[in-house]
Amino acid sequence: MAHRFSLKEIARQAGLSVATVDRVLHERPGVRRGTVGQVTRAIAELDSQQTQLELSGRSFVIDLVVDAPARFSGALRSALEAELPLLRPAAFRARFHLRERWGAVECARQLDAVARRGSHGVLLKAVDSPEIADAVERLAARGIPVVTVVTDLPSTARIAYVGPENRAAGSTAAYLMCSWLGERPGDIALTASHDSFRGEEEREMGFRATMRALAPGRRVHELPDSDGIDATAECHLEDLYARHAAISGIYSIGGGNSGLARAIERNGIHGTVLLGHDLNQENSLLLARGSMQAVLGHNLRTDMHGACRALMHHHGALPGAWEPERSPIDIHTPYNMPASSAR
């Protein structure tokens, strides 16, 4: 009977004496079949609990590095802080590096600073650029794993990606847009925070492909990058209205939705369909007052849990290899928002 535990451990787990366990393990005569079963079950139970026993006392220091508007980086931080206590008996401590409009060079410098200081892993949301890719390679060379969050860097040495299937999210937005507009005339405006975020690029690709399939006659106008800033998004939409008033729908990939809603209201465009991403406080309020028709979201806490689990597998704290599943895409309307979302 193969095992990796001491006689005392098995005896304690089985509720038997050490001598009895010794007789069972050495297959000596005079042992009842039920007693053999007790010892077998005890060893199986110890095996199943060994992972938790090994995690006891393990501690991990990780870094969350995010290039995003404060409303989103704050939501990621809150999600990670909520999940860390649930990872016990392992102990996690997080350091946070969150900034809006973070240039690729400066973000790469922050990643290099993490590499010099040392870390058990980096959770990263950043643009897909040569500078960031090189910094991820330097982290990997120092044995520091990187998990990308919400937007991927698939050509780098990152160990995993957590987040939604972004192309499917864009296709879902196009389906909703066409369903809401029906036969109503008008074109579509599309706005992103930055075209270097691969996740936003994939959402746009999914949206455009599905719009071509479902509504080939509708033109899609792409607004300049807004960095997800309300005032910038508002200004870009105002400029489009000045040039092309027949806009019946807006797909907001990267945020700035309060600014978009103000531009819609100022121009008196009633019935404009506004779709966006992430059920944060701002979008919840816009949904509640009817300024947005739907918000596509996913569970950030699930993403953060999956990212930490990927790091534990990488360091051998959990057995075997593991790849997080893509986060399911949720569709939120004014009628199915969680009660806590508008707080």
UniProtKB/TrEMBL annotation:
UniProt xrefs under PANTHER family: LACI-RELATED TRANSCRIPTIONAL REPRESSOR, TRANSCRIPTIONAL REGULATORY PROTEIN
SMART domains: HTH_LACI
Official protein name in the record: LacI family transcriptional regulator
Organism the protein comes from: Paeniglutamicibacter sulfureus
InterPro entries: HTH_LacI (IPR000843), Lambda_DNA-bd_dom_sf (IPR010982), Peripla_BP_I (IPR028082), SBP_2_dom (IPR025997)
Source superkingdom: Bacteria
Keywords: DNA-binding, Transcription, Transcription regulation
HTH lacI-type domain mapped to chain residues: 5-47
Lineage, uppermost ranks: Bacteria, Bacillati, Actinomycetota, Actinomycetes, Micrococcales
SUPFAM superfamilies given in the database record: lambda repressor-like DNA-binding domains, Periplasmic binding protein-like I
One family name in Pfam for this protein: Peripla_BP_4
